[in-house]
Amino acid sequence: MTRRERLNAALRGEPVDRPPVCFYELDGINQDPDNDDPFNVFHDPSWRPLLDLTREKADCIHLSGPPFRNWPPNPLEDLTTSQEWMDESGSRRFKTTLKAGTRLLTSQTRCDPEVYTIWTTEHLLKDVDDFKAWLELPEQGPPSDPDVGPFLEREKRMGDRGIVALDTGDPICSVAPLFDLGTFTVIAMTEPELFHRALERAARVIQPRIEEVARALPGRLWRIYGPEYASPPYLPPRLFDEYIVRYDKPMIDAIQKHGGIARIHSHGRLKGILGLIAATGCKGLDPVEPPPQGDVTLAQVRKALGQDVVLFGNIEVSDIENLPTDQFAEKVRTALREGPNEAGRAFVLMPSASPYGRTITPLTLRNYETMVELAESFAP
Questions:
Q1: pLDDT for residue 286
Q2: Rg (CA), the chain
Q3: Which stretches of the chain are assigned E, i.e. beta strand?
């Protein structure tokens, strides 16, 4: 089978020659080793063998989403100011100020040249009064007319190496990052009416967008990120029901009405919410982290969610970077043994994330190679 055929068969619960092995965000498209921008960690020579392995051996899933041709005017444009500068350590800094009634709301982020991520150093909303002021701001309506051309071009570029999946946050992923984690958990617990107002506000933009894209690009894999914000230990299962099932199920229904496959992305503890994840109607789940990062095994998740849900996981990126290869290989063998359903299907071997530092060590590279080797030699 080609890598594209293998992934599509795994997603549909059809026979595969072996389980696919995906390197998550590493996809051979988003990582450019030839770009010498000082903030491009992939330019470091240590990355090239891993990126070559990705292009040559991994069953790649490129995460993307089409732009929209029509966006309504942004009612916050005249209320917002932005600054960008380089600090003395060489990091790129951003500051946004938003006027909300009589309050000035500020947020700040930092991007370091040695790390492929953006750190939030100041969150926009600090307390309930900020939240109330933000909720009174005028809303921007949803976009329309998705331009599917760039997405189809990425599928063509990917070719037989893999697939291109659609990627979206859910309503809670639009709201929770407005606060630091501690403030978010307190407000989500103590101010459910305000929190639902915020989620409904986000859903009024997200839901129509999902429906248009699902109709324009039917039959694709989707990743929905955000549910982990409402999972234990941050929030109790009853609030996962209120804040995730209520708002994500309509997204999932719209995706799957057009033949798509909706995959929920949720790190951490799953034991207390597996029934609620099933209630969303999703057809996939990642990254199913093993203990101690998570609190269930792949075998337990498979038993709880049934034979048809596609499980993606459950290799920790920290294990890829730190475990001796013989110990790491045992983790991979366990995932390959427990992840597939009774027919040996509906599973994609995948890490919980990807490295984001500038240097890839020989151990990290060897452990990625081990994932591929064990998947290629796997016999149910």
A1: 98
A2: 21
A3: 60-64, 68-70, 80-86, 92-100, 103-111, 118-122, 144-146, 162-169, 221-225, 261-265, 284-286, 310-315, 347-351
- What are the residues facing 81 on neighbouring strands? 97
Give dist(CA 225, CA 97) in Å, integer. Answer: 26
Q: Are strands 261-265 and 221-225 parallel, antiparallel or unpaired?
A: parallel
Q: Tell me the CA distances in angstroms from 90 to 16, 108, 111, 114, one per residue in order.
A: 48, 16, 9, 10
pLDDT of residue 76 exceeding 80, the answer is yes
Q: Are 280 and 252 in contact (CB under 8 A)?
A: yes
Q: What are phi and psi of 140, to 5 degrees?
A: -90, 135
Handedness of CA 52, 355, 5, 376 (dihedral sign): positive
pTM above 0.85, yes or no: yes
Helices (H), 91-190: 128-135, 149-158, 171-175, 181-190
121-140 pLDDT, tens digit per residue, is: 999 999 999 999 999 999 99
Question: In this structure, are residues 7 and 347 in contact, taking their beta carbons and an 8 Å threshold?
Answer: no
- pLDDT of 296-316, one tens digit each? 999 999 999 999 999 999 999
Catalogue all structural domains in the chain, each as residue range(s) with its CATH number.
3-72+123-376 (3.20.20.210), 73-122 (no CATH)
